[in-house]
Specification:
Protein name (chain A): ABC transporter permease
Number of domains of chain A: 2
Shape of chain A: globular
Pfam families (chain A): BPD_transp_1
Number of strands of chain B: 0
Shape of chain B: globular
CATH architecture of chain B: Orthogonal Bundle
CATH superfamily of chain B: MetI-like
Number of helices of chain B: 14
CATH topology of chain B: MetI-like fold
Radius of gyration of chain A: 25 Å
Helix content of chain B: over 70%
Strand content of chain A: under 5%
Order of helices and strands of chain B: HHHHHHHHHHHHHH
Number of strands of chain A: 0
Structural class of chain A: mainly alpha
Radius of gyration of chain B: 23 Å
CATH topology of the largest domain in chain A: MetI-like fold
Subcellular location (chain A): Cell membrane
CATH class of the largest domain in chain A: Mainly Alpha
CATH superfamily of the largest domain in chain A: MetI-like
Number of domains of chain B: 1
Oligomer: heterodimer
CATH architecture of the largest domain in chain A: Orthogonal Bundle
Membrane topology (chain A): Multi-pass membrane protein
Distance between the termini of chain B: 38 Å
Family (chain A): Belongs to the binding-protein-dependent transport system permease family. CysTW subfamily.
Largest sheet of chain B: none
């Protein structure tokens, strides 16, 4: 209301008044948002609400918590949640261990070389998850690249079980998630005020000490953001565990798909989905809180 | 540390070798499918013993694969055509909102990127079942558009953040209509990000597996869906040939993106 009132004063009344309403800068920006909000509502928000609705009825159609009780009571469900959380946590650890030193190095480079590295980091983001899962199979399977090389070099006699297990799943997921982790972390590290580093060095702090006590704390919000992103996205992974896990790694998403397509158990599938969604949201909230606290402390330190 | 980093020779050497090894880890595995796709063997051998085009011939000779490729192309083009105007309009409108609303709207529009795709897939499946759109191209394109909206919205919001609204006000004060302003003032200023978001929306749809798996079927089954089942049942080297072609598309996209970016920097 107030938006249309102010704009009526600034925009001269014209023949295309209606168009101004939809595409204009001043009249009701909400109209421009409508198509986007409508599509996201129809394809994402409504489906999530639908799952919540479906999950709260038992097989006979009565309102009940039976679908959620089953998740707690049955060992097979608990095991799937534990597996998914463990695989995701391992992926996060790999991303942090590999990503933080790499990001530190790239952030220390000049603009040109850094841009080259960032271009190389972005390349895998353009390649399909399926292509990469397939490539890892070629490398890791029984008669794959690594096993063939190790056998012909005489290092091993029997092929190592590299594919279709937790190892290959975590490797494949790290390969996919590392670029997503690196981008915010490199950004955060490049934003760090170099004079703080120089100040620490000039006061006689060793390089290791400066890195640990000055640089890393300043980069922490970026690292936490990247790690959360990786963890949250890993929880929902489907394609990589399905192909590289080879049936030996049961992720939450795979169980959801199976309850639906094999057992047609809508309530169970929906309940797992709701729990997955809630865990995702809870993790994002916790990460946001940590970043707030970290920033608050950094701000307090300056004052 | 950053200043001392380069001065210490051993540390710099270690840094470079680690970084280059990591780049190898990130890039090389995807490229391995290229030699594999020219192998004559039924099994995965590396390096391949004999050169052959049989997997490409197999792909182009198979009605099922071609139909899947056609469905994927239609879906990806339609997704780009639909999501770019919708996302751009949303990004344009969102910056005019009061701060609090801007955060709420932004969070809502980013939901498709945050909610695990399996949930979108099964929830959307139920919604589509209600309106009889399962297995249709319309349902698939709408779903992929929802997944592409966050991408377009983020890129275009960044573009509008550096956009000079004075040009628009000037055009308006001279009495230009809204359509003219979009055509002659706004769009010329945001051409490069528009191109980037169209490409990314295209790729988002082209590579999407999970939603397509649940809601596309029959003649509308997309390439990733068919590839996924080919990989799950047995390792079909045709997938290597398709992967190589997909890689080629990705490379063309990246190069054209870099070119459009440098053109903007020159102009």
């Amino acid at each position: 209301m107030s938006a249309s009132a102010t704009s009526a004063g600034t925009v001269p009344a014209r023949g295309e008044g209606r168009l101004t309403g939809i595409f204009g800068p001043s009249l009701r920006p909400y109209l421009g948002l409508m198509p986007g909000l409508a599509i996201v509502f129809l394809c994402v928000a409504l489906p999530c609400l639908w799952l919540l609705y479906l999950s709260s009825f038992d097989d006979a159609g009565r309102l009940s918590a039976v679908n959620y009780e089953r998740l707690i009571d049955q060992v097979s469900y608990r095991r799937i949640f534990v597996t998914t959380f463990l695989v995701s946590a391992q992926t996060v650890i790999c991303c942090v261990l590999l990503g933080v030193p790499l990001a530190t190095f790239i952030a220390s480079l000049g603009r040109r070389s850094a841009a080259l590295f960032i271009g190389a980091i972005l390349f895998p983001l353009w390649t399909s998850l399926l292509v990469r899962a397939y490539a890892w199979l070629v490398i890791l399977q029984r008669n794959g690249l690594v096993n063939n090389w190790l056998m012909s070099a005489g290092v091993i006699d029997e092929p190592l079980p590299l594919a279709f297990n937790t190892f290959s799943t975590v490797l494949g997921m790290t390969h996919i998630m590392l670029p997503i982790f690196l981008l915010p972390v490199i950004g955060a590290m490049r934003d760090i005020d170099r004079s703080l580093i120089r100040a620490a060095a000039s006061m006689g702090a060793s390089r290791t000490y400066t890195y640990r006590k000055v640089f890393l704390p300043l980069a922490l919000p970026g690292i936490v953001a990247g790690a959360t992103l990786v963890f949250v996205m890993s929880l929902g992974f489907y394609v990589t565990p399905a192909i590289l896990g080879g049936g030996n790694v049961q992720a939450i998403s795979m169980r959801i798909a199976r309850s639906l397509s094999t057992y047609s158990n809508f309530g169970a599938a929906a309940a797992i989905g709701v729990v997955l969604l809630l865990s995702t949201l809870a993790l994002l909230a916790v990460s946001l809180l940590i970043r707030r606290l970290a920033q608050g402390r950094a701000g307090g330190g300056h004052a | 540390m950053l200043d001392g980093f380069a001065r210490n020779r051993a540390l710099a050497w270690a840094g470079w070798s680690f970084a280059l090894a990591m780049m190898f880890f990130l890039i090389a595995p995807s490229l391995i499918v290229i030699p594999m796709s020219f192998s004559s063997s039924e099994y995965l051998e590396f390096p391949p013993r004999d050169f052959s085009m049989r997997w490409y011939e197999g792909f182009f000779g198979s009605l099922a694969w071609l139909q899947a490729a056609r469905a994927s192309l239609i879906a990806a083009v339609s997704t780009a055509v639909l999501s770019v105007p919708v996302g751009t309009l949303a990004a344009y409108a969102a910056r005019l909102l009061p701060l609090r609303m801007k955060i709420v709207v932004g969070a809502f529009l980013l939901m498709p990127a945050i909610v695990p795709s399996i949930l979108v897939a099964i929830g959307y499946f139920f919604v589509l079942a209600q309106i009889n759109l399962i297995g249709t191209m319309t349902g698939l394109v709408l779903g992929h558009t929802a997944l592409a909206i966050p991408v377009v919205f983020v890129i275009m919001s960044a573009a509008f953040a550096t956009f000079d609204a004075n040009h628009e006000r000037a055009a308006e004060s001279f009495g230009a209509g809204r359509l003219t302003i979009w055509k002659d003032v706004i769009i010329p200023q945001i051409k490069a990000p528009l191109f980037a978001s169209a490409l990314l929306a295209f790729v988002t749809s082209l590579d999407e597996v999970v939603v397509a798996m649940f809601i596309s079927s029959g003649s509308n089954a997309t390439l990733p869906k068919v590839m996924f089942s080919a990989l799950r049942d047995r390792i079909d080297p045709t997938v290597a040939a398709i992967s190589t072609m997909l890689l080629l598309i990705a490379m063309v996209a990246v190069v054209s993106l870099l070119k459009s970016g440098s053109k903007r920097a020159d102009g």
